[in-house]
Design a protein that fits this description.
There is one protein chain. This protein is α+β, with helices and mostly antiparallel strands. The chain contains 11 helices and 16 strands. Strands 1, 3, 4, 7, 12, 13, 14 and 16 form an 8-stranded antiparallel sheet that branches. A hairpin with a 4-residue loop joins β12 and β13. α1 packs antiparallel against α4, α1 runs parallel beside α6 and α6 runs antiparallel to α8. The protein is elongated, with a radius of gyration of 28 Å.
């Protein structure tokens, strides 16, 4: 690529680094919990409602009537990618106990589920929905249209009319946005005898095969392995990003639901999806080593490009005194557009999003509002799953706001923006609220003095958004430190 001036070259480098930092992370997930209290290796599994951590296990519900609980992984899974159409493979292995504590009558069961993020609580409490939904919600078209789920249910109570009829009351089913199973089979279990069961759920995106393998007991004594599978296109049923975990409930009858172990592994839809689904028996630390190394090298290369090549290019153009001062130019409208584009990429959304909440419709105004409330990093694209350097992201967003400032005189020169991005200068202190643009008729001055006056004003401006050097670092940190 040929650059006609160092100004364009620097813009290109800054945007390239920005793209690197906020490019979607390779969203592979891999963990193996045999003790849910040990969160030193993996992100935690979060219990909600009546679910609690109990020693090394998670108790999804106590042995009490009208209870429900969930345990979800704290990171969302990137299930499929809209741009490429690629879909993730995943394998979920887990062990659990359902125990009636000797009672002959009991209910209701548990599920492994994938759902729309922030899936609503079942309301009102309803044991038949297994901690996911209630009968009332299942009868609401609006609820069903906005809240999607695919679940594997281990149902211990026959609820007419939607549960299938087998020779035993218990069944395992694959449920799609409904508590009536899309496919099911009888489950030969012994709920009264406090036994541990195992299950493995596997999705192969190349064949769309959603398969379940689980244990049971023939004649209440002999361990057996049972199977259930269906061909399911998850891209038609679930959003790109899903939360996943377990739910359980009790109704008029009760039983104890305990999750004893859970291992999970998924591929990233951003990577090659032609390979078979991963095996959870692999070394959990191995898959991301090459990825981390590659990203680290990439970061070093981009940083070197900015720090080393910039002086080279500046020297190359030094013959012209006018071009020598290019890096002191204030960001103009074309550069403003570049940084607004960078903000757009960082947040994973368009400059104007009509479907967003009213206060989030206009991207620049929304980011500025978050800046003023010390929540700037909340604007980062959720698909990054928090996998970025917070200080770098904060600097890039603040510099983006600075360069897109409605007051032209407050915008930085290229030199100043580079210094801030390189951590060689403090972050600027911008107004807590985005200022309204003003349009004033400039005085009639000679062209030679106009540039000089404008530059002098820019350099000496005492406005809140002005760049004043490292002395502002402490003040900025105290007043506008971003938090998630």
């Amino acid at each position: 690529m040929i650059f006609q001036s160092p100004k364009l070259f620097i813009i290109y480098l800054m945007i390239s680094i920005f793209l690197y930092l906020i490019s979607p992370c390779a969203t592979q997930i891999s963990f193996n919990y045999s003790d849910f209290n040990d969160t030193t290796k993996y992100k935690p599994v979060t219990p909600t409602r009546n679910a609690t951590n109990s020693g090394s296990v998670i108790q999804l519900t106590p042995d009490e009537v009208d209870n429900w609980g969930r345990a979800t992984y704290s990171e969302q899974m990137h299930l499929w990618d809209k741009n490429s159409g690629n879909v993730a493979n995943f394998t979920s292995n887990f062990s659990f106990i359902i125990d009636s504590r000797g009672k002959y009558t009991y209910s209701d069961g548990l599920t492994f589920f994938l759902s729309t993020p922030n899936f609503p609580d079942p309301s009102p409490t309803d044991g038949s929905g297994l901690g996911l939904v209630s009968r009332v919600q299942m009868a609401q078209p609006i609820f069903l249209a906005t809240n999607k789920f695919v679940a594997v249910e281990f149902d211990t109570f026959h609820n007419a009319p939607w549960d299938p009829s087998y020779e035993v009351p218990e069944h395992v089913g694959i449920n799609i946005n409904n508590m009536t199973s899309y496919n099911s089979t009888a489950w030969y279990c012994t709920i009264m005898q406090n036994r541990t069961y195992s299950a493995s759920i596997n999705y192969d995106s190349s064949t769309q095969n959603f398969s379940v393998t689980f244990t049971g007991f023939a004649n209440d004594t002999t361990p057996i392995q049972q199977h259930l599978s269906s061909i399911i296109n998850l891209t038609l049923l679930l959003p790109e990003w899903v939360e996943f975990g377990f739910s359980a409930s009790t109704g008029l009858l009760s039983e104890l639901h305990i999750l004893t172990a859970w291992s999970f592994e998924s591929t990233s839809p951003l990577l090659n999806q032609q390979s078979p689904a991963p095996s959870v028996e692999k070394n959990k630390d191995e898959p991301n080593k090459k990825l981390v190394a590659g990203l680290s090298v990439g970061a070093c290369i981009l940083t070197i490009c900015l720090v080393v090549l910039y002086p080279v290019y500046k020297k190359k153009w030094r013959p012209s005194e006018e071009e020598e001062e290019d890096d002191d130019l204030v960001f103009d409208l074309s550069m403003d557009d570049e940084f607004e584009r960078a903000l757009e990429i960082a947040c994973g959304r368009k400059p104007v999003e009509p479907k967003a909440k009213e206060d989030e419709t206009i991207l620049l105004e929304w980011i500025w509002e978050l800046y003023g409330t010390r929540n700037l990093l909340k604007a980062a694209d959720t698909r990054l799953c928090g996998d970025f350097d917070e200080q770098q992201m904060e600097r890039l967003m603040v510099v983006g706001l600075w360069c897109a400032h409605p007051d032209y005189n407050v915008r930085p020169s290229i030199r100043k923006a580079i210094h801030v991005l390189d951590f060689e200068a403090a972050l600027p202190i911008l107004e807590p609220k985005m200022p309204m643009p003003t349009y004033l008729t400039p005085p009639i001055l000679a062209s030679t003095s106009s540039t000089s006056n404008s530059e002098d004003h820019h350099a000496q401006s005492p406005s809140p958004g002005s760049y004043t050097g490292s002395s502002q670092f402490t003040t900025y940190s105290a007043a506008y430190t971003s938090t998630q």
